[in-house]
Design goal:
With about 350 residues, this protein is an alpha+beta fold. It is about 60% helix and about 15% strand. The radius of gyration is 24 Å and the shape is elongated.
């Protein structure tokens, strides 16, 4: 399956690159003295139908939400707008209205989902507050509340990821870790994780100022799109800092909850642990290994070798951002107090085997 995904991704990148390059060459290189009849329509079909279909069949199908297809169509229209000369696009002035209409249908779908959320909101808030009495793990508690009252809502997982970015980046600065049940283990204090994200924030801000000025002279729309993405990037990096600080690994009598910043998390039942040991393998993992591995280490200037390795009885679900899930059968991690973590987890595993 992993090989198939890589093959699909490679095929997708090759095909989309060929489509984009062919259309760019048509309008920006002196191949034709005049643009052939029907060429503009063909280009529009390439960007709005061919590339989205390639995205669906090679990337999205059976793995990701169809909501991503709307983003691909918008990106395709943006590419067409930039590549096809304005004079040639004028004859298709109705096109933006069609795009807006299709996006409007997606908005209606989102409003319906919002209606379902609003009707369940009192129960969701009550459940979240109940869970928050036990710990301060915002993303974990919110996901549990949604799974209880609005299960199997992939679109909601997308909003949940965005909500978490804004919560951690803007509203969690004064929050402190709270755990009433279980043993927390921090995993970032002996790393340069915070420094890495601060460096990325500085680089993003500097890039935003310089590139926005340059791009603004060329295309205002592109300049503002890039500015928006950079602002979001800064918020994401801030969110990573606070999510890492506020969500230590949590070990209870029944489970081990692992959340590395905003991007990766897993709620692992202890009964699914086949073997827990000190890691004695190579420092770097092969691409094949990474396909079924949950690497719970944080970003660092110098990536330290994992301290521990956990082998699972059967593949478990690792949660990524935007509702994306992946099955893994192996976990590697570091903690700030390795000796205590080793003793505590072994003690609970022995107790679990006795029970």
């Amino acid at each position: 399956m992993a090989i198939s995904k890589k093959r699909n991704l490679l095929l997708y990148l090759v095909l989309t690159s060929l489509v984009v390059l062919a259309n760019y060459s048509l309008y920006h290189f002196p191949i034709y003295k005049t643009i052939p009849d029907g060429a503009v329509l063909g280009s529009i079909l390439d960007f709005l139908i061919v590339i989205p279909l390639l995205t669906y069949f090679l990337i999205i199908r059976k793995r990701y939400s169809l909501k991503y297809l709307g983003v691909v169509i918008l990106a395709g229209y943006g590419a067409a707008y930039l590549i096809i000369p304005n004079a040639e696009m004028e004859q298709y002035s109705f096109l933006p209205y069609i795009i807006l209409g299709s996006e409007g249908l997606l908005i209606l779908l989102e409003l319906y989902i919002l209606y379902k959320v609003v009707t369940k909101l009192p129960k969701l808030i009550k459940e979240y507050k109940k869970l928050s009495l036990e710990n301060s793990f915002f993303l974990y508690n919110l996901r549990l509340a949604l799974d209880k009252y609005l299960p199997n809502q992939k679109v909601l997982q997308i909003f949940l990821s965005e909500f978490a970015v804004f919560y951690y980046s803007l509203f969690s600065w004064k929050k402190k870790v709270k755990v009433s049940h279980g043993t927390p283990f921090t995993y970032h204090k002996k790393t340069s994780s915070t420094a890495v994200y601060i460096m990325l924030i500085h680089a993003t801000i500097i890039e935003s100022v310089g590139l926005h000025y340059l791009l603004h002279q060329w295309n205002e729309i592109v300049a503002y799109i890039l500015l928006f993405l950079n602002v979001y990037g800064v918020l994401y990096f801030l969110g990573e800092i606070h999510a890492t600080r506020l969500t230590p690994f949590l070990l209870t009598d029944k489970q081990l909850y692992l959340q590395t910043g905003l991007a990766k998390s897993m709620d692992l039942p202890l009964q699914q642990i086949k073997e827990f040991k000190y890691y004695d393998g190579p420092e770097k993992f092969t691409r094949k290994e990474l396909d079924t591995l949950f690497d719970a280490r944080v970003a660092d200037f110098i990536s330290e070798k994992p301290t521990f390795e956990i082998l699972l009885n059967e593949p478990q679900t690792m949660n990524l951002m935007y509702g994306i899930e992946r099955k893994v059968d192996r976990i590697v991690l570091n903690v700030d107090e390795p000796n205590q973590f080793y003793e505590e987890l072994n003690k609970r595993l022995v107790q679990k085997n006795i029970d």
